[in-house]
Specification:
Blueprint (H helix, E strand, L loop, with lengths): L9 H14 L12 H8 L3 H13 L3 E4 L5 E4 L4 H16 L6 H22 L2 H9 L9 H18 L3 H7 L9 H5 L5 H18 L2 H19 L2
Antiparallel strand pairs: 1-2
Helix pairs in contact: 1-3, 2-3, 4-8, 5-7, 5-10, 5-11, 6-7, 7-8, 10-11
């Protein structure tokens, strides 16, 4: 026999209602939400419930609240970095469970990064090349944490070079998922030297504007990581 249905708290119901208005576009970025007294009347809840709902939406970066005569709660403008952080948190939680493994992450990276490498070669600017060069590391001198951070920064720079902010938004969280201790201990001895060599080759292809070569390097790079981390 099924147990009784648990009704969500009133603040959650109000937050869900306002979230629907925001995500549907009925409330646009920069638009002011109804004032608290109006929300109380409309929803039949107390002011403390309204404030709790607004705090929840603010914690999800959906609204911003300001004080003063012209203050109030306003629909937040989309922020790629905050959205990326939210995706990163969810992805990390999944990767720490049994549902998502390194092979799943690399499969997704392959689907995204190979075409991104081609677009980067076609669209890159001098500033993009400088950013990519700045993400290089020395496999003979740098420590593991430095190389992991540089690896993430390099691929984020390639995504940025596509000129399509959605590539950067979607791929950046993938680089914040850390290698497990078991994987790190079993990497081939020349692993980081190979990663460094691939990065340098990809940079040259992007600099030369050779989209086909850039995609091939990106494909080989991820195929190598797939094999090396599966040992």
């Amino acid at each position: 026999m099924a147990g009784p249905t648990v009704r969500p708290p009133a603040y959650q119901l109000l937050a869900d209602e306002l979230r629907d208005e925001i995500t549907s576009g009925r409330l646009q970025p920069g638009e002011r939400l109804p004032p608290e007294p109006e929300l109380c009347v409309r929803s039949g809840v107390s002011r403390s419930t309204v404030r709790e709902a607004l705090r929840l939406l603010a914690s999800q970066h959906l609204i911003v609240t300001t004080r003063g005569v012209t203050g109030g709660s306003f629909v937040a403008h989309p922020d790629a970095e905050q959205l990326s952080e939210a995706l990163s948190t969810g992805l990390t939680l999944l990767s720490n469970s049994a549902e998502v493994g390194m092979a799943d992450l690399l499969e997704l990276r392959r689907a995204l990064e190979v075409p991104a490498a081609g677009l980067a070669a076609q669209r890159r600017t001098d500033a993009n090349l400088i950013e990519m060069r700045g993400a290089m590391f020395d496999p003979d001198l740098d420590e593991l944490e430095t190389m992991l951070a540089a690896h993430a920064a390099f691929h984020a720079a390639v995504a940025s070079a596509t000129g399509n902010p959605l590539f950067e938004l979607v791929t950046r969280p993938l680089y914040h998922v850390t290698y497990g201790e078991e994987i790190v201990e079993n990497l081939p001895g020349d692993y980081w030297a190979r990663i460094d060599a691939d990065h340098r080759e990809l940079l040259m292809c992007v600099k030369a504007g050779d989209a086909a070569a850039a995609m091939e390097v990106g494909r080989r790079h991820l195929d190598y990581i797939m094999v090396a981390t599966a040992r």
